[in-house]
């Protein structure tokens, strides 16, 4: 019994060496009888991997330029046009449209109630599109004042567009036509700005600047402060336009987005006539300042 145990211990003591020798002969690692070592781990650690040829390298001379579609080039024209029917269209080749009713609200100033609308629609591509803007007031079911603009919008930068077109006003005094030139876009800190200069009848000039900001209180509850400033180049008593700063409107609306396309809101607004325009308002026997409560809906599709 003791002799058998000694034999077993002797076999176990020599097993690792035999296994290592067998593994080395099978894999090429270690030393085989009559041969020199194939690979030494110490040599592998000292190898210079910088001299190895890695996958990749320089592109072939006839490779396509990855920026071929920048600078106004399209798939149907230019040195990279493909023969045969079109298989792919880029996003800036598609025409898009949209309608935004930014304000559709009932306005209560304590004495009268009016219905106010402010909407815009567009159709075109990423860089060029036609834009229609319309806003106005209605009292007792009749349109009392309206302003409509038809503009051509062109992308200047990623966040800014230029706008060129015409505007037509009705309601307060004789109707009036304008040429319009402006910019609109997104300023730093997500401030939306719209500034437009106008040239109207009889050499009248005007400037309108509008800004608004959306503060997300929750994912659905949004507070939207808004301000609008208007100025005219000269007096026009028939239309209630006074030279210099004419009108300032500021307020805030709190809306709840039932969906991204439909959001009812309530708000408060303060309006004031300034400068020579305030004098014209006093001559008509009206107040130069008023506070308004509004309730309405914002929607787009």
From TrEMBL:
Taxonomic lineage: Bacteria, Pseudomonadati, Pseudomonadota, Gammaproteobacteria, Aeromonadales
Species annotation: Oceanisphaera marina
Key words of the record: Signal
Comp. bias intervals (Polar residues): 33-56
Region Disordered, annotated ranges: 26-68
First and last residue of the signal peptide: 1-22
Name listed for the protein in its UniProt record: Copper resistance protein B
Organism superkingdom: Bacteria
InterPro entries: Cu-R_B_prcur (IPR007939)
Tagged with keyword Repeat: no
